[in-house]
Amino acid sequence: MSVPADTVATRGITQFPQLSDAQLDRLFLHRPQPVTVHSPIDTLAIALGATLYVPATRDDLTAVIARRAASGVTSMVIDLEDAVADDDEALALERTIAALAEFARDGWDRLLLFVRVRTVAHIDAVVSGLPDNHCLAGFVIPKFEAATGLDALEAIAAASADWDRPLYAMPVLETPRIVHRETRDTELMAIRELLNRHRERVLAVRIGATDICGLFGIRRDRDVTIYDVRVAADAIAGIVNMLGRSDGSGFVITGPVWEYFANHERMFAPTLRHTPFRDHDAVYFRQRLVSRDLDGLLREIALDRANGITGKTVIHPIHVGAVHSLSSVTDEEYSDALDILGRDGGGAQASAYGNKMNELKPHRNWAVGVMNRAHVFGVTRNDVSFVDLLTEWAAE
């Protein structure tokens, strides 16, 4: 099955590619800028946005990836691990290699495409036949620990040396040594040391919330966020504390998966306020979000951001618009960041919006992060909210 001709494009990605120039001009003060695998690693990590997983066993693998890219997805993972039954491992590997070869033949490179492997041998198998014009961005390494992660990082580094484009690693932290209190700090310090030795190779650190909860026999309900599950929230806080520092020693950490996408009988009232939707004539659209449990996702995305986390793992295409709409920088955020970065010497001053104080030293790292996000996801106009972005996304 060939990649459809109208989905073939040059290398590089830009957020909201499905929107027209007229839509982009109406929504954005500064449009999202293109990013490639050769962009600075922190910029590329932000561009992951909502990372969508697809089982490697699908018989329409190339077609579904191409469709998702055309709909606005900017990062995907071909999954050889949890989404594949043990008996189908060989088939999954075969279809992954075939899909990458097909994309290379067609010169297709429209999103950041990764493979989640089970073993280091999978890395070797996938890269063994990659041509020069492949579109692979790297590998997701599940169950990552200090004692076992080195082999995978070295395999990816060795493979990357064969091409003029990098291959990145995204370790997933989800094992008992990271979650259990008595081993957490020691293990995270060892992981930090290992990742620092391969800093140029580590694109982002991912959090395996499903496995973390599974260690305690928990499956979180759609009425709560991951931050309401205290044992999981404690593990996330430890990961961010050790690996997410903004002093130059940290890494981009991506948000845990949101598992739900269909309506259900609710125990609690929706957490999504009426006002932003009423103000934008989108009351019915709010009802649609609530019926698909996206109000819980929106709340968790906000909590991810509040806890120093960027982007998110998702399992359904409808989640991508929510993540990307809330990733765009508002005019107010952009104004504050410019004020903070435009002055040296410390001190504080009132925001240009007149609703807060900007403290120039404590808020500087935040402002740098806002500018990086603005480059990737754009800056919305002052009369545009995430509701506008999300409704435009959903209409496509």
TrEMBL record:
Say which species the protein is native to: Gordonia spumicola
CC cofactor: Mg(2+)
What GO terms describe the biological role, i.e. biological process, of this protein?
A: oxaloacetate metabolic process
Supply the source organism's classification.
Answer: Bacteria, Bacillati, Actinomycetota, Actinomycetes, Mycobacteriales
Superkingdom of the organism of origin? Bacteria
Protein name, entry field: ATP/GTP-binding protein
PANTHER family with a match to the protein in the record = CITRATE LYASE SUBUNIT BETA, LYASE BETA SUBUNIT, PUTATIVE (AFU_ORTHOLOGUE AFUA_4G13030)-RELATED
Q: Name one GO molecular function term.
A: magnesium ion binding
Q: Does the keyword Ion transport apply?
A: no
Q: Which InterPro entries match?
A: C-C_Bond_Lyase-like, Pyrv/PenolPyrv_kinase-like_dom, Pyrv_kinase-like_dom_sf
Q: Which Pfam families match?
A: C-C_Bond_Lyase
What keywords are annotated for this sequence in UniProt?
Magnesium, Metal-binding
